[in-house]
Amino acid sequence: MQTGKIGVTTENIFPIIKKFLYSDHEIFLRELVSNAVDATTKIKVLSSLGDYKGELGDQTIHVKLDEEAKTLTISDHGVGMTADEVEKYINQIAFSGAEEFMSKHKLDAQNIIGHFGLGFFSAFMVAEKVEIVTKSYKEGSQAVHWECDGSPDYTLQDSNRETFGTDIVLHFTSEDAEIFANKTKIEELLKKYCSFLPVAIAFGKEQEWDKDNKKYVDTDKDKIINDTKPLWKIAPSEITKELYDEFYHKLYPMAEEPLFHIHLNVDYPFNLTGVLYFPKLKNSFEFQKNKIQLYCNQVFVTDSVEGIVPEFLTLLNGVIDSPDIPLNVSRSYLQSDQNVKKISNHITKKVADRLAELFKSDRTEYEKKWDDLKIFIQYGVISNEKFGERAAEFTLLKNTDDYYYTFEQYSDLIKDGQTDKNGKLVILYTNDTIAQHSFIEKAKTKGYDVLVMDSPIESHFISFLEHKNENWTFKRIDADVVEKLVEKEESLAMALTIEQQETLRQVFTAALPKEKEVIYNVEFAALAAEEAPVVVTQNEFMRRMRDMSKTGGGYMNFYGEMADSYNIVVNGNNPLITDILGSVEKEVDAGLTDDARKEALSKAGESNGKLHQIIDLALLGTGLLKGEALTKFIKRSVSMI
């Protein structure tokens, strides 16, 4: 029996491993099973090269849990180790056996996973004691048993194991580790980290229904928990749409059918495989960025892929697998380098190519999918310059009549009727066709076209388009009265003098609802006499800044904290407004002092039922009449009837 100290530079190495080396303790199972896969892959490579001439036997990796004893055993029928190799690869931390094997058999061992030689020691993050029982495939080798309790001290002695391979035994004796001495927990971790490893992994037995005892019972057949040849490892020409959809639901059991997919298969200048799916985003801003799973040689690494794909692509679902993505020592975080940038650019290009292909080959079908694609494409246009340049050819604008246009087509459509006196193209839009119906109808009566722009990031998208196209300006349909949305040279004359407008401003201000959350500004406009006496509008700039603050953050929060602001636009040419002015002038003595006159005008505004009615009708039409003000309006309307 041999005793000794593990070759480390400090006795504090184990606390460091437990606390800092790995960001998530549960990945110990991924590391140990990956090591077993490596060992199994090595013996297969050696056998194929003729360096091992014996029988390989069953290559299945077995994971066995003894809940009563609180032990977990990972068993493989791989290359195993001699006592010298245990001394070299285990007792000398970070001497990677996989790295050494790769250097010797580079062309034949592309699926070897390990790089750092530290994966085994992740076991000590959860186990109080770890045992290794191993025997090398080399002829005449003596099996050995290694044991360590998490200190630098270990024991190494001969064992009676008969077959080559390795058993790793973890003892979960501490209270913190007891969670892992649970079948459901181990099965959950195996499914998360090991579902697509290239060697069969067995955990437990398949079950069948026992009619007599009316319960499920174990059979003699091993329960294989992984798919050794996942979809992304199969040539696209061999895969049907049904198989793509089936794989999608394996990854996301509760998801709706995806819109379409992209199969990645690159072997130069980097190695990259995978399948990405476009989910149905509907019209919600649900940036679920943890849906793309990153694998390295079929080993799950992370679902936080912001470092490897542009941010807008994190809205996609699916799998990326590449051995060329550099990982830090724990495989839990990505390191940025040229390969990552190349892979990121390639994925962006493939996505743009696929969208362009769909648009060109079947525009009608593409238009049907537009509402689900819209947020994704808009986000890409805003956040990624290269994608934005390419997306100009397949980004669509939809109007209220459900017609779809490219940027160029829409510009040609409206340039004659919606170019203002300054030569700017005014693009009108609505974000709510029901609430803004009256504004839309008035615009259509004027011969204007109105777009539907209702995604949560539409304000950002609109501002981006205005920045890229200096001759474009966007106005929501309720940003102003219809006569002023597209300003022309000709305009109607105002019937009210400046003094009369100031008189009515004070009267209207007194009659408006008093709300802390809302600011109302009284304005006057020279509209046709038959137009409504009062229209409620909202300044385009301020409203858009508030909308952007909801998703933008940063300095935009300043606008988000401001109260809502609306314009009460008074039609100075409407007869009702003239009547109200006349009644106020009769009621308020012209010879009053300024202060007395202001007070009298306020009282006149507060008491004028007709004035309240026309204001409330305008507020009601825009959904702003609420609470006590709505109750008063209903009572007043009944009394008037």
UniProtKB/TrEMBL annotation:
What Pfam families does the annotation carry?
A: HATPase_c_3, HSP90
Its domain of life reads Bacteria
The record's Gene3D superfamilies line, in alphabetical order, gives: 3.30.230.80, 3.40.50.11260, Heat shock protein 90, C-terminal domain, Histidine kinase-like ATPase, C-terminal domain
Which Gene Ontology terms cover its molecular function?
Answer: ATP binding; ATP hydrolysis activity; ATP-dependent protein folding chaperone; unfolded protein binding
Q: Which SUPFAM superfamilies match?
A: ATPase domain of HSP90 chaperone/DNA topoisomerase II/histidine kinase, Ribosomal protein S5 domain 2-like
- Give a yes or no for keyword rRNA-binding in this entry: no
- Record CDD domains: HATPase_Hsp90-like
Keyword terms of this UniProt record: ATP-binding, Chaperone, Cytoplasm, Nucleotide-binding, Stress response
Chain residues that bind ATP: E31, N35, D76, M81, S96, G97, T166, R331
Which stretch is the leader sequence? Answer: none
- Give the family this protein belongs to, as stated in its UniProt record: Belongs to the heat shock protein 90 family.
- Which NCBIfam families does UniProt cross-reference here? PRK05218.1 (NF003555)
Descriptive protein name? Chaperone protein HtpG
